[in-house]
Protein: DUF4254 domain-containing protein
Amino acid sequence: MKFTETAWKVFNQAIEDYHVSDDVNTLINNPFEKDTLERILYAKNWIDTVQWHLEDIIRDENIDPAEALQLKRTIDASNQKRTDLVEYIDSWFLTKFENITPKSDAKINTETPAWAVDRLSILALKVYHMSLEANRESASEEHRNNCQAKLDVLLTQKEDLSTSINQLLADIENGNVKMKVYKQMKMYNDESLNPILYQKGQQK
Structure:
């Protein structure tokens, strides 16, 4: 089974498991064995799925401002966990390919394997929710048809992205692409880098 086939299957299992309760406070119950790639992928998509629904909740026009602020902070924390896990997946790939010597003319890709996997995880969520809309009985026929058209595009995108990821991994393994990882170095959560946070600290 190709890598993306495994990833897509795991992502959809996480999405289905989340929607059993459909509650952002549900704790993850990862069914895969420790230290396996599947366990990492499941955890990645679980974060994405919870955050997807947090983003829905915060867009409620009638939400209490205090609740919205707390949700924003929860989303920020989730984003940090998402970034950390993407970088962990890249570390997994670095270990996998550590004995590969890139060719002298090896290219560098615009994104790492894990950030491409991140896009595949989000795409799985888009496909799941667009499919719900395309088949929602309470919606108008026009709405369902529009959503079906969008779903068809998303499924094409899934095939193209999957092919690209598999090609990238093959190119790294064959030495045609040099895998290089750059940490995201997010600044807004860092009290030493975000001026709003460190200036507040200086005022105390």
Notes: The chain has a mean pLDDT of 92. Residues 3-202 form one domain.
